[in-house]
Every structure is written in structure tokens, then in C-alpha cells.
Amino acid sequence: MKKYEHVSEYLADLAPMQREVAQIMRELLQDAAPEANEKISYNMPAIEQNGHVLVYFAPTESHLGFYPTADPIVAFKDQLKNYQTSKGTIKIPYDKPLPVKLIRVIVAYRIQQVTTN
Known about the structure:
Blueprint: H1 7-12, H2 16-32, E1 37-41, E2 44-49, E3 52-59, E4 63-67, H3 70-75, E5 84-86, E6 89-93, H4 100-116
Antiparallel strand pairs: 1-2, 2-3, 3-4, 4-6, 5-6
Protein name: YdhG-like domain-containing protein
Domain YdhG-like: 18-111
Pfam families: DUF1801
């Protein structure tokens, strides 16, 4: 498996549709967390603030994987009922629009977690 150092390098290797969705997510995260820095962590795009990764994301063949850590999955379980989730994962199918408002709320939640702890 190729090891990535930069998000732009990661995105360049994606299939066109996956790259388009990933770029939209990238821009959404940059807007939702303007003080965060993007990085590659666990060989996928992530944003970090105050030395803590806020969220990760990675396109797959069938969905966009959004990894906000475990706490938001529990905190927003009612809003996530239409998505397949696991301990720290939200699977967003490509045939559904990105839940922009929900992603923003989850990112704000994560920012609060890393700035108050």
C-alpha cells in the first residue's frame, strides 16, 4: 500500500468520482474548522487542532468513510440513524448527499472536546 504524506497526493490517486466527493469533504472540513490543519494520519486525510485529530475521512468504492472518533457516534446517534455506523465510523453512501449540517455539528463537537480538555 502506498504511504501518503499530503492530502493533495492522496486525492490525486482517487478515481474521479471519489476524488470529487473527497474534495467536497476536504473543503467542508476546512470551512468547519478554519483553525485546524490537514494532515495524513493512518494513511488517510485528517484534520487536527491543538495536537488532536478531530476527524478523518476516506473514500471507498461504495461510500465515504467519515471517522469522527467514538464519542460523536454516541452523542449524535439520533441524527445518524439513517447511516450505517460503528464505534468510530459513519458510512455515507455516494447515492446520498453529504449531510453538511450534521458534519459541521460533529466537527464543532470535536473542536469543543479538544479545546476544553
